[in-house]
Design brief:
homodimer, 230 residues, Jelly Rolls, Arc Repressor Mutant, subunit A, 2 domains, 9 helices, 11 strands, 43% helix, elongated, DNA-binding
Chain lengths: 230, 230
DNA sequence: CGTTCAATTGATCAGCGTCAAACTAGGTGG
DNA sequence: CCACCTAGTTTGACGCTGATCAATTGAACG
């Protein structure tokens, strides 16, 4: 465990209030590892051995059942994932794979649970983190239950535009087939959804999306503070 | 705040480790109230003023967007709800209404947050509670994203059968239209889903469901430890 | 015994998935 | 530098799932 790795962890709100010695203790046995793209990190039914911290790259959390598969969420650096599973000492519940070459800090789940029961500041932050994660899934659940595929895409575009500086031109940060899976549709249907949005001023050129009539797009999308990420 | 109410709260794992004086403090300003059926307790965009404890009756958490509405989960006594919202001092995120006459203990959210920062035992239990809630929504999200309507119904029947003593006959604990909404379909489609399950040994008589070929049902449902509640 | 609302049934339609084929872009080797 | 390969994307045709609309049946309650 080198200093730089400790600094990465310390920069996260989740660990910001943890006592120095508890942090050191938790990080013993942790290791920073680089994975190539498309590597499966763990499967949903595996027992949770590590809390993961994505330091660099991109990770997809997905789930499988029957013969179907769906993206549940995407992790961008720097962020932790599978905290809830690490704390409850259960299965991961979701599978994970790298979408690109990624650097991941792996912290033994047992260490995290020990820190949790010993460190008051950490427990407080964990409560906050878990509450936010919970609301995140609730939003995703509402999104898929209350909106059509085209509406989900329209709202995705609006959120990306806000995140990328409200310029009216966005660059998709992921492949379209991954986006399709995250929005709960097939790649073919995503193509058609983009076509459906053409009359609403959406122009597509590869990974670049141009929003020519923001007002019309919003009218269709009906964005909601209680569904879409801020 | 009478003793009986305190005993109810104390019986919940979430509050089991809280120090006596912190518990008393938290319960000042709390009140037990009875609501008739079909009453809206709060709306998703409302600011969270109270942590709710359902003591008796049944409550539906639902969400609305555009002109659609969907049941997100059902609360059965004795259980808390909207803990995450109370702790983050944000909007409820979900709306709530009583499905039947219900008794609810309402604890000021500010008191809960105070207790959280003062009481180590409570913080530990809150972490656990939130992690379990999180996995609960993840399951629901996987359920709707990876299964068809008929599969969701089949798995619902299997879970209910297990909960009601594996007798092969279950009694639906809610109206069919509520069940339909929870399973993410229309009441009409639920009727047809039951009809689809007839060849798999499902007989319906009002709220009573008979499972005549458990094996066939399971083959269709493909139940998963990682989606269906235990 | 009539009112009311849930549940069912039928007909139709929209949304989305599946399958197949064509097209495109990025990378590789000749 | 170009031909070629591969994988992602797009387009078209078709079919299934589930929603909508309308009408009927059934059950609970005053």
């Amino acid at each position: 465990m080198r200093t730089s790795e400790k600094e990465i962890v310390r920069s996260l709100p989740l660990f910001s209030e943890m006592a120095e010695d508890h942090l050191d203790e938790m990080l013993t046995g942790s290791f920073l590892q680089r994975f190539p793209a498309t590597v499966v990190l763990f499967s949903e039914s595996d027992h949770t051995d590590f809390l993961h911290v994505l330091v660099d790259g991109q990770v997809e959390l997905y789930a499988s059942a029957n013969n179907r598969e769906g993206t549940m969420t995407l992790i961008k650096p720097v962020a932790t994932f599978v905290l809830a599973s690490a704390l409850t000492d259960s299965a991961y519940q979701l599978s994970a794979r790298t979408l690109e070459s990624s650097q991941i800090l792996m912290i033994p789940a047992q260490n995290v649970r020990t820190a949790m029961s010993n460190d008051q500041g950490f427990a407080q932050k964990a409560v906050r983190e878990l509450a936010l994660c919970y609301h995140g899934v609730v939003r995703a659940y509402k999104n898929i239950k209350l909106r059509t595929a085209v509406e989900r895409l329209a709202n995705y575009i609006i959120v990306q535009n806000r995140r990328q500086g409200e310029t009216g031109v966005i660059k998709l940060p992921i492949e379209k087939r991954t986006l399709a899976s995250m929005l709960g549709m097939t790649p073919e249907n995503l193509s058609r959804a983009f076509a459906t949005l053409k009359p609403y001023g959406i122009r597509v050129d590869g990974a670049e999306i141009c929003i020519e009539k923001p007002g019309d797009l919003e009218t269709l999308a009906k964005p909601s503070e209680l569904i879409d990420a801020h």
